[in-house]
Amino acid sequence: MIARQLIQEEVLPLLFTETVSQALVRMDDYKVSHFPVVDQGFFQGVVVEKELLGLADISQPISPELIHYEDFYINDDQIVYDLLALVNKQKLSIIPVIDAENHYLGCITISSLLGFLAHSLSADSPGGVIVLEVSEVDYSLTEIANIIESNNAKILNVLLVSGFDSTRLTVIIKVNLINISFILRTFDRYKYNVWASFGEDIGQEDMKENYDSLMNYLKM
Predict the structure, then answer these.
(1) What mean pLDDT do residues 137-148 have?
(2) What residues does 34 pair with on adjacent strands?
């Protein structure tokens, strides 16, 4: 998936003929804290809500001095990993997309990006989740897949999470079965450390406790 495929065309950019007050209204309408500025079809940069709110006169027109350009856009042919890196680096709430000639093509909203990620991660698909903790040297997706498929299940998605100063990996696997008890027992036979699991084979209280523990771990 590349950036141009996620563009939300209904997001109209700001023009230099518009005022700071109009920019703030537009940001409030879209519930974002950044907004693109375009001149004659060419991308000029973005304005930032907190900076505009600090101005004494919000009736003034948008000027080049209020605009940020570098690292506040993405090229239309860049992949989604570049997009996620940019959002994380700049904490963007909306991402302008441009072509090689600096033409403004549209924006990607956080909601559309989250929708794409939810679909990619099979968030809406029924299934169980297994969280393994393995060392980097022992990690083998082939072996993990074989264990799961030997129990007549399919992997819907795999996420890897590694700590900055750790040689351990957290492997989060979503499978197409709700009842994952047979898979868990197979992992146990292969001496895998099953850190958490989410399926119909465990009670609601245990599931909530495991989920909360996982979220706390991922925030570290």
Answers:
(1) 95
(2) 48
